[in-house]
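Priority: medium. Attachment 1 of 2:
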Protein backbone atom coordinates (compact mmCIF):
# COMPACT_ATOMS: atom_id res chain seq x y z
CA UNK A 1 0.00 0.00 0.00
CA UNK A 2 1.29 3.41 -0.95
CA UNK A 3 -1.45 5.40 0.79
CA UNK A 4 -3.84 4.79 3.64
CA UNK A 5 -6.97 6.68 4.61
CA UNK A 6 -7.27 6.99 8.36
CA UNK A 7 -10.58 7.90 9.95
CA UNK A 8 -10.38 9.01 13.58
CA UNK A 9 -11.73 11.44 16.13
CA UNK A 10 -11.53 15.22 16.06
CA UNK A 11 -11.19 14.76 19.83
CA UNK A 12 -8.62 12.68 21.68
CA UNK A 13 -11.02 10.68 23.85
CA UNK A 14 -10.51 9.91 27.53
CA UNK A 15 -7.88 7.17 27.41
CA UNK A 16 -4.21 8.01 26.77
CA UNK A 17 -4.02 4.78 24.75
CA UNK A 18 -5.96 6.45 21.93
CA UNK A 19 -3.39 9.22 21.53
CA UNK A 20 -0.52 6.75 21.82
CA UNK A 21 -2.10 4.55 19.14
CA UNK A 22 -2.40 7.53 16.77
CA UNK A 23 1.27 8.36 17.38
CA UNK A 24 2.34 4.74 16.85
CA UNK A 25 0.39 4.50 13.60
CA UNK A 26 1.79 7.83 12.38
CA UNK A 27 5.32 6.64 13.06
CA UNK A 28 4.75 3.36 11.20
CA UNK A 29 3.25 5.16 8.20
CA UNK A 30 6.23 7.51 7.99
CA UNK A 31 8.76 4.68 8.38
CA UNK A 32 7.02 2.56 5.74
CA UNK A 33 6.62 5.49 3.30
CA UNK A 34 2.84 5.11 3.31
CA UNK A 35 1.11 8.41 2.65
CA UNK A 36 -1.52 9.40 5.21
CA UNK A 37 -4.80 10.48 3.65
CA UNK A 38 -7.16 11.93 6.26
CA UNK A 39 -9.78 14.55 7.05
CA UNK A 40 -7.40 17.50 7.18
CA UNK A 41 -7.94 18.72 10.74
CA UNK A 42 -5.26 19.63 13.26
CA UNK A 43 -7.32 18.73 16.33
CA UNK A 44 -7.91 15.50 18.22
CA UNK A 45 -6.51 12.20 17.02
CA UNK A 46 -6.49 13.62 13.48
CA UNK A 47 -3.96 16.24 14.52
CA UNK A 48 -1.87 13.73 16.48
CA UNK A 49 -1.47 11.31 13.59
CA UNK A 50 -0.81 14.04 11.01
CA UNK A 51 1.77 15.73 13.25
CA UNK A 52 3.52 12.42 13.93
CA UNK A 53 3.77 11.55 10.24
CA UNK A 54 5.13 15.01 9.44
CA UNK A 55 7.61 14.96 12.36
CA UNK A 56 9.01 11.72 10.94
CA UNK A 57 9.41 13.00 7.36
CA UNK A 58 6.32 11.28 6.00
CA UNK A 59 3.73 12.56 3.56
CA UNK A 60 0.28 13.75 4.63
CA UNK A 61 -2.65 14.78 2.46
CA UNK A 62 -5.63 16.28 4.25
CA UNK A 63 -9.01 16.73 2.60
CA UNK A 64 -11.40 19.03 4.37
CA UNK A 65 -14.75 20.56 3.36
CA UNK A 66 -15.11 24.33 3.48
CA UNK A 67 -17.63 24.08 6.33
CA UNK A 68 -15.20 22.12 8.53
CA UNK A 69 -12.18 24.36 7.92
CA UNK A 70 -13.10 26.40 10.99
CA UNK A 71 -14.59 23.63 13.14
CA UNK A 72 -11.73 21.17 12.75
CA UNK A 73 -9.16 23.87 12.07
CA UNK A 74 -7.57 22.87 8.77
CA UNK A 75 -4.00 21.69 9.33
CA UNK A 76 -1.59 24.11 7.65
CA UNK A 77 1.53 22.12 8.57
CA UNK A 78 1.02 19.09 6.34
CA UNK A 79 2.28 18.17 2.88
CA UNK A 80 -0.97 19.11 1.17
CA UNK A 81 -4.32 20.42 2.41
CA UNK A 82 -7.13 20.19 -0.12
CA UNK A 83 -10.27 22.19 0.60
CA UNK A 84 -13.37 20.76 -1.09
CA UNK A 85 -16.96 21.93 -1.35
CA UNK A 86 -18.67 19.32 0.83
CA UNK A 87 -18.50 15.92 2.54
CA UNK A 88 -19.46 14.04 -0.63
CA UNK A 89 -16.51 15.51 -2.51
CA UNK A 90 -14.23 14.80 0.47
CA UNK A 91 -15.23 11.14 0.64
CA UNK A 92 -14.91 10.60 -3.10
CA UNK A 93 -11.41 12.10 -3.11
CA UNK A 94 -10.31 10.11 -0.03
CA UNK A 95 -11.52 6.95 -1.78
CA UNK A 96 -9.69 7.85 -4.98
CA UNK A 97 -6.37 8.65 -3.27
CA UNK A 98 -6.28 5.72 -0.81
CA UNK A 99 -5.22 2.08 -1.12
CA UNK A 100 -7.06 1.12 2.07
CA UNK A 101 -9.13 2.45 4.97
CA UNK A 102 -8.23 2.24 8.66
CA UNK A 103 -10.38 3.43 11.51
CA UNK A 104 -9.09 4.51 14.93
CA UNK A 105 -11.43 5.46 17.77
CA UNK A 106 -13.77 8.33 17.04
CA UNK A 107 -17.35 9.51 17.09
CA UNK A 108 -20.27 9.42 14.70
CA UNK A 109 -18.34 10.97 11.81
CA UNK A 110 -15.59 8.38 12.13
CA UNK A 111 -18.10 5.53 12.25
CA UNK A 112 -20.04 6.93 9.31
CA UNK A 113 -16.87 7.19 7.22
CA UNK A 114 -15.69 3.62 7.79
CA UNK A 115 -19.15 2.15 7.28
CA UNK A 116 -19.62 4.05 4.05
CA UNK A 117 -16.37 2.80 2.51
CA UNK A 118 -17.02 -0.70 3.89
CA UNK A 119 -20.41 -0.65 2.16
CA UNK A 120 -18.87 0.69 -1.06
CA UNK A 121 -16.42 -2.21 -1.04
CA UNK A 122 -19.14 -4.73 -0.38
CA UNK A 123 -21.21 -3.59 -3.35
CA UNK A 124 -18.20 -3.43 -5.65
CA UNK A 125 -17.19 0.23 -5.89
CA UNK A 126 -13.69 -0.69 -4.71
CA UNK A 127 -11.68 -3.71 -3.56
CA UNK A 128 -9.64 -2.00 -0.87
CA UNK A 129 -9.19 -3.30 2.67
CA UNK A 130 -11.25 -1.79 5.48
CA UNK A 131 -10.13 -2.16 9.08
CA UNK A 132 -10.82 -1.21 12.68
CA UNK A 133 -7.81 -0.56 14.90
CA UNK A 134 -9.36 -1.85 18.11
CA UNK A 135 -7.35 0.29 20.54
CA UNK A 136 -8.00 -0.72 24.17
CA UNK A 137 -11.04 -2.73 23.03
CA UNK A 138 -12.78 0.42 21.79
CA UNK A 139 -14.57 -1.42 18.99
CA UNK A 140 -15.60 -4.53 20.97
CA UNK A 141 -19.25 -3.36 21.33
CA UNK A 142 -19.39 -2.60 17.60
CA UNK A 143 -17.97 -6.01 16.71
CA UNK A 144 -20.60 -7.57 18.99
CA UNK A 145 -23.31 -5.61 17.14
CA UNK A 146 -21.98 -6.79 13.78
CA UNK A 147 -22.02 -10.38 15.04
CA UNK A 148 -25.61 -9.85 16.19
CA UNK A 149 -26.46 -8.45 12.75
CA UNK A 150 -24.95 -11.57 11.19
CA UNK A 151 -26.71 -14.05 13.52
CA UNK A 152 -29.99 -12.28 12.86
CA UNK A 153 -29.62 -12.85 9.12
CA UNK A 154 -28.98 -9.29 7.97
CA UNK A 155 -25.34 -9.83 7.00
CA UNK A 156 -23.29 -12.84 5.96
CA UNK A 157 -20.30 -14.21 7.88
CA UNK A 158 -18.24 -13.44 4.78
CA UNK A 159 -19.20 -9.77 4.89
CA UNK A 160 -18.40 -9.48 8.58
CA UNK A 161 -14.99 -11.09 8.03
CA UNK A 162 -14.15 -8.54 5.33
CA UNK A 163 -13.99 -5.84 8.00
CA UNK A 164 -10.59 -6.51 9.55
CA UNK A 165 -10.33 -5.95 13.30
CA UNK A 166 -7.19 -6.14 15.42
CA UNK A 167 -5.66 -4.55 18.55
CA UNK A 168 -2.14 -5.03 17.14
CA UNK A 169 -1.45 -2.33 14.56
CA UNK A 170 1.44 -4.12 12.89
CA UNK A 171 -0.60 -7.32 12.48
CA UNK A 172 -3.56 -5.28 11.22
CA UNK A 173 -1.46 -3.49 8.62
CA UNK A 174 -0.09 -6.86 7.46
CA UNK A 175 -3.66 -8.16 7.08
CA UNK A 176 -4.57 -5.06 5.10
CA UNK A 177 -1.50 -5.49 2.88
CA UNK A 178 -2.51 -9.09 2.09
CA UNK A 179 -5.99 -7.95 1.03
CA UNK A 180 -4.49 -5.11 -1.00
CA UNK A 181 -2.09 -7.45 -2.84
CA UNK A 182 -4.82 -10.00 -3.55
CA UNK A 183 -6.98 -7.46 -5.39
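Attachment 2 of 2:
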Amino acid sequence: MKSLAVFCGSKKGILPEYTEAARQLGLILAQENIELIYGGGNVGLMGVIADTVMENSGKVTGIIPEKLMELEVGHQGISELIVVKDMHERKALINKLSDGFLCLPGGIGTLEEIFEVFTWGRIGYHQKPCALYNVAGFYNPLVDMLTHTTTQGFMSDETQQELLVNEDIEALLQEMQKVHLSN
